[in-house]
């Protein structure tokens, strides 16, 4: 097979990348919602918000999205959700089956579920800034009003080598979806503005319900979702099951929409 690609020079390709990135970046320097962390809870929150026409940006420190959702647990790529979270797998078009020995426990292929969630979030219109790490939060009159970010490559280097100031992005609401780290919450704790309770020991049956229940505004302007909820409120950990991550993300989107309406 022979293929003739349409002509474009090296400089035109570079200009296309720089121009499009700069245009989108400038547009999202000010936005309605910023989600820090592109794991299952952050992606789900982004999908919920973008599908309701909210202007939303997801900041992710890795080049890939998905967080812990690519694997089910212990390097094994079958993921589990418990009822009623299979409704979200239906929403995403993820095939699954009920585990033969436990009613209401469902299994899906993690790579397929993760790819579908990422696609659904992007298709809904959420914009992504990957290879970007949270450096700090913007705080105006005791309300979180945005984030301070740097390229992950810069943040990863010692300051003596890469003394590069970060930049700030403003938003009406910030969602901390950084998983066990609860990185945005941690920035407020470092200033003595609140105290994270830290994660409790494993108790899956209690934990999933509690994570969804506690998904809320943890500090003015800052909503927590996913495992950041556990770390913030001191809930038990849940291990390798993902229903609460998906449902917490959806709820975080709904809480943000309520905040935007006020
Ligand atoms: O860890 P992660 O998947 O968090 P989640 O959405 O889901 C937790 C589950 O994967 C699993 C579990 C329950 O089933 O225990 O662990 O709560 O995704 C968090 C994302 O945030 C990014 C990180 O790379 C990952 O993709 N992240 C973390 N810290 C930062 C960050 C940061 N400082 N800046 C930018 N992104």
CATH second-level architecture: 3-Layer(bba) Sandwich
What binds here, in terms of ligands, is:
ligand 48F
Q: What is the CATH class designation?
A: Alpha Beta
Fold-level CATH name: FAD/NAD(P)-binding domain
Q: What structural class do helix, strand and pairing data support?
A: alpha/beta
In total, the number of strands is 13
Mean pLDDT: 97
Helical content (DSSP H or I, runs of 4+) = 25-40%
The termini sit apart by: 59 Å
Overall spatial form: globular
Q: What is the H level of CATH, i.e. the homologous superfamily?
A: FAD/NAD(P)-binding domain
Contiguous uncertain segments of 5+ residues: none
> Beta-strand percentage?
25-35%
The largest sheet, given as strand count, sense and whether it forms a barrel, is: 8 strands, mixed
| Overall radius of gyration | 19 Å
Fill in the keyword field for this structure:
alpha/beta; 262 residues; binds ligand 48F; globular; FAD/NAD(P)-binding domain; three-stranded antiparallel sheet; 13 strands; eight-stranded mixed sheet
Polypeptide structure, described:
There is one protein chain. With 262 residues, the chain is an alpha/beta fold. The chain has a single domain (31-65, 111-261), classed as FAD/NAD(P)-binding domain (3-Layer(bba) Sandwich). The chain contains 9 helices and 13 strands. Strands 1, 2, 6, 7, 8, 9, 11 and 12 form an 8-stranded mixed sheet that branches. The radius of gyration is 19 Å and the shape is globular. Ligand 48F is lined by residues 36-42, 59-62, 67-69, 133-134, 177-179, 181, 183, 226-228, 238, 240-242, 245.
